[in-house]
Amino acid sequence: MIDSLYLAWRYIVFNRIKTITLVMCISLVSFLPFALKMILKESENQLMSRAATTPLLVGAKGNSLDLVMNSLYFSKEKPDFISMKAIEKIIDSYLALPIPLYTRFYAREYPIVGTSLDYFEFRKHTIASGRAFAMLGECVIGADVAARLNLGVGDSILSSPENLFDLAGVYPLKMKVTGILNKTNSVDDKAVFVDLKTTWVIQGLGHGHQDVKTITESDAVLNRSEKLVTASAKIKQYTEINLDNLESFHFHGDPSIYPLTAIIAVPQDEKSATILRGRYLSEQKNQQIVRPKQVIEDLLGNIFQIKEFIDAVVLIVAMAMVLAIFLVFSLSFRLREKEISTILHLGCSRSTVIQLVLAEVLIIAMFSAVLCFSSLLVLQNFQGEIVHKLFIS
Amino acid sequence: MKRLNTYFVRPVLLLSGLLLAFNNVNAEEPTPLNIYTVNYPVKFFAESIAGNYAKVTLPMPTDIDPAFWSPKAEDIAAIQTADLVLLNGANYAKWLPKVSLSLFKLVNTSSEYRDSFISLEADVKHNHGVGGEHSHTGIAFTTWLDFSLAEKQAKAIFKVLSRKKPNLNAKFVQNFIPLQKALLDIDTELTQIGKELAGVPLVGSHPVYQYLKQRYQLNLKSVHWEPEETPTEEQWQGLKQILESHPSKWMLWEGKPADETVAKLEALGIKSIVFSPIANTPETGDFLSLMQENIAALKAISSVQ
Predict the structure, then answer these.
(1) Does A133 sit within 8 Å of B101, measured CB to CB?
(2) Same domain, yes or no: B163 and B46
(3) What is the ipTM of this complex?
(4) pLDDT digits (tens, 9 = 90+) for B81-128
(5) What residue numbers bound the domain in which B115 lies?
(6) Is B81 near chain A, with CB under 8 Å?
(7) Residue-number span of the structural domain to which A165 is assigned
(8) Which chain B residues are closer than 8 Å to A195 by Cβ?
């Protein structure tokens, strides 16, 4: 057998182009169904793990998938906004505890998630270094954000402007990093967490500026009366919140109508969840309440339908490939008739010839298996990223 | 063997029994709730109702107005450890919008009577104490000076404590009933004083008596003075202007006023009395005993009238 393997090996090395082509074809056909299965399994894991642990989501009426994908995975599709009144409504119901989410802004490519401290407790996230945000303008960053931007506790990160061409827009806010989360293996690793009120400052609903009562520059004040001072755009607005200027920060308008993208509602029990859902179905015309698990199951159902189709295509391609390989080998043996005849004339039996053929097939199969397995290992390392790009971003 | 039994086995059994009993006592004793509040009245109500079943903390120093306190990050970190943070509501704690606290733990004790809040007109900024410059705009926040509202506030605290620790409900009821009675008694007493003082012009040294004025029908106008500061000439002129249409002979102070101010007021025919809102922890006495002192001061006016 060793001799047959040696002869087969020499033949394969001599015909390397043919061998490489065969190995590539077999590897690819074997790799595709496994890779597809792996990606779908990962997408199911990623999508379902967060969806299953998020009991209810409240958001503006509209596309429930956008609401779930934005709230759970911080996708770029933004649902319509709801107001803080929705939070009060849930608190007053005593049926669930609300966790607000406002995921509109970015710091570089990382989403800024405006929420409350309850989010960390709810997701069971712990802080690796530093502390949770305590004051306006502070942030806690995910492990990947810290690693990729080389940020540590005490460093700062700037919010990105929504529109580069909006010259009259709000200034970016320089946020102080007070804590870094332990690795969670979820999208939270790639997010910047701030208090909800900080996102309102980023939006411009709240701000801090020079004291208009003591300002001396004449062109910074448009009008001054006993009870009202109208400042011009020249007034210095603070782009960083620190202990020296914290007092000057204030919010304008009615905070109960300030925006949110969603609320995670954590019901007391199953009965409370049912009652709360019923209330939204009967009373709320502009808001919806969804079970993320159900929405993601629907999405996965669609994905698996596509998978079944792809499986069928792969099966046909594989059959065609097997036929092609069979053809390649039969043509190869026809071309090698003289070679086989010489082997027989040298005194080798027909079984030796069969052994030689089997050894060739075995070596090609082994190379294909190794290549397929290596490719799957590489894919395994990047499957999280691929799933995020394919199904979440 | 008998001696061994007497000297070793019996004490060991006795000790084991005692340890078991001690463990059982500890198992029944619930962990006290860690509660933070934003002012002294709320702290007093929570302490009165929860008794030993809660550790109630008012986190700011005693020499500042809790409404205008500026917490540091360490203070917030401490408050973040609380099981409950009891708020006064009516935009009382001005520091609240600038800090991050768990929504699960925040309890607005005045949410049930938010329709009774009194709106304020725009006001000029002023400065006193350690709290820094501030103004009294938006909503009047010394809600507890209307004792019918204070009773509702205490009831809200009772409800939240009962929800948090349902197994201690009976204890909380037992503690709440006397507090409720005391608050309603003060309300009745002040209503009576209000009737006796009907139409008598009064001046408040600081705009903190809005709920007292409204509930007990007091004829009261306020200036912006501080007990520890000598009023400026402009402030004296402001008072004189008020006195032209509102000839008051009494001024209500949040704290003991400076002797010089008292003398100057007396020269104008105005006597000073202290009616403290008791927003921060008092040096002596408690909320109810100090309110009785406030009532006694008001009674002094009605007796003179």
Answers:
(1) no
(2) yes
(3) 0.75
(4) 999 999 999 999 999 999 999 988 999 999 999 899 999 865 544 444
(5) 33-181
(6) no
(7) 56-208+249-290
(8) 99-100
